[in-house]
From TrEMBL:
Family listed: Belongs to the isocitrate and isopropylmalate dehydrogenases family. LeuB type 1 subfamily.
Complexes and interactors: Homodimer.
Enzyme class, spelled out: oxidoreductase
Higher taxonomy: Bacteria, Pseudomonadati, Pseudomonadota, Gammaproteobacteria, Thiotrichales
InterPro entries: IsoCit/isopropylmalate_DH_CS, IsoPropMal-DH-like_dom, Isopropylmalate_DH
Known function: Catalyzes the oxidation of 3-carboxy-2-hydroxy-4-methylpentanoate (3-isopropylmalate) to 3-carboxy-4-methyl-2-oxopentanoate. The product decarboxylates to 4-methyl-2 oxopentanoate.
Record localization: Cytoplasm
Protein name: 3-isopropylmalate dehydrogenase
A single MF term (Gene Ontology): magnesium ion binding
Site entry: Important for catalysis: Y141, K192
Length: 357
């Protein structure tokens, strides 16, 4: 049966990079019977400008009804002074929470062709293949109470609440352990259990859960050390599981191990592998509208969508191989450029991937 894919290009470079992924999906539809129907919706600042809200009712309805969602990015300078409740980012967070997309998978894999593009020494990153499993619908991002209040002395105070319930920790833990079973059977749980009770509980629950996965080796690491170890010796990791905010920060750090944040895809999944797929980077307002952005993280996110939500592993592999072939040819957007390579634009990179298909 034809699957419904909702495209949410969003803001900044979002429309430019999603357009490249659509070219790829069009070819897969025409040539390899992917059998999807794509519709487009508004989210983020683009939605705010039309409807006064970053997640209009129609977009949420479409998202709930779709088999999968491909999102570009949201946010930009022009919306930064808006009330936080209607900021573009709230549109993205609203989809994640309404669709219960609690499991964010961010695979940091170095294409060998890009060993020179990383700011780290080639021997530190060569062969890198780690998976960050980030909890996406809880933690300090969503904890209540939150806000800015006025204290008795007239001074303002900002506050957020860092909470995780046992069931939330367990369900993301299962995702990490199950992923590790298909990989190198190692999970590193990252927390701040030396200071924060919420992650003391996180550590306890992960330790208990590990008993259900005797083949998997569980280790624990404090987040500050993890940030350091990721650049010291990233290949010590297989699967990293962590909360929403630590996962946000560590995945941007990990992206540089793969050459550029423009290379890091992601899948945000619910309990039934329904999902939203998005590059891990943002709307890059500094380069938006200039045909400069790297579309590969978005194209690779589309590959994850094809794998997890559309059930076509064969075509996901095909897309990943096409990306690899394009890198073999020496084609590089500015963010992954190195001497001797051929510099291409966003759309030329998209065309090159299409050509390989
Ligand atoms: P960013 O990821 O947008 O950009 C950081 C840097 O990386 C910039 O120099 C940018 O040019 C570069 N970059 C990012 N993606 C790139 C790509 N595909 N190709 C080449 N270079 C790329 O982060 P930021 O500057 O902190 O945030 C900008 C806006 O994006 C903010 O409004 C933020 O809230 C939003 N944001 C959205 C998402 C999302 O939609 N998932 C993620 C992160 C940030
Ligand atoms: C990401 C982004 C988002 C997050 C923002 C834009 C809400 O940084 O997808 O990594 O913090 O989750
Ligand atoms: Mn982020």
């Amino acid at each position: 049966m034809t699957k419904q894919v909702l495209l949410l290009p969003g803001d900044g470079i979002g429309p430019e990079i999603v357009a490249q992924a659509v070219k790829v999906l069009d070819v897969l539809n025409d040539k390899y019977n992917l059998d999807i129907n794509m519709t487009e919706g508004l989210v983020g600042g683009a939605a705010y400008d039309v409807h006064g809200h970053p997640l209009p009712e129609a977009t949420l309805e479409a998202a709930l009804g779709a088999d999968a969602i491909l999102l570009g990015a949201v946010g930009g300078y022009q919306w930064e002074s808006l009330d936080i409740a209607v900021r573009p980012e709230k549109g993205l967070l609203g989809i994640r929470s309404n669709l219960k997309l609690f499991a964010n998978l961010r695979p940091a894999m170095l294409y060998p062709q890009l060993a020179d593009a990383s700011t780290l020494k080639p021997e530190v990153v060569s062969g890198l293949d780690i998976l960050i499993v980030r909890e996406l619908t809880g933690g300090i991002y969503f904890g209540q109470p939150r806000g800015i209040r006025v204290l008795e002395n007239g001074e303002r105070q900002g506050f957020n609440t860092y909470v995780y319930s046992e069931s939330e920790i367990k369900r993301i833990g299962h995702v990490a352990f199950q992923a590790a079973m298909k990989r190198n059977k190692k999970v590193c749980s990252v927390d701040k259990a030396n200071v924060l009770e919420v992650t003391e509980l996180w550590r306890e629950v992960m330790t208990d859960l590990a008993k259900e996965y005797p083949e998997v080796e569980l280790s624990h690491m404090y987040v500050d050390n993890a940030a350091m170890q990721l650049v010291r010796n990233p290949k010590q990791f297989d699967v990293i599981v962590t909360g929403n905010m630590f996962g946000d920060i560590l995945s941007d750090e990990a992206s540089m191990l793969t050459g550029s944040i423009g290379m890091l895809p992601s899948a945000s999944l619910d309990a039934n592998n329904k999902g939203m797929y998005e590059p891990s980077h943002g709307s890059a307002p500094d380069i938006a509208g200039q045909d400069l952005a790297n579309p590969l993280a978005t194209i690779l996110s589309a590959a994850m969508m094809i794998r997890y939500s559309l059930g076509r592993e064969d075509l996901a592999v095909r897309v990943e191989q096409a990306v690899s072939a394009v890198l073999d040819k020496g084609l590089r957007t500015g963010d992954i450029f190195s001497v001797g390579m051929t510099r291409v634009s966003t759309s030329e990179m998209g065309d090159a991937v299409v050509e390989e298909l």
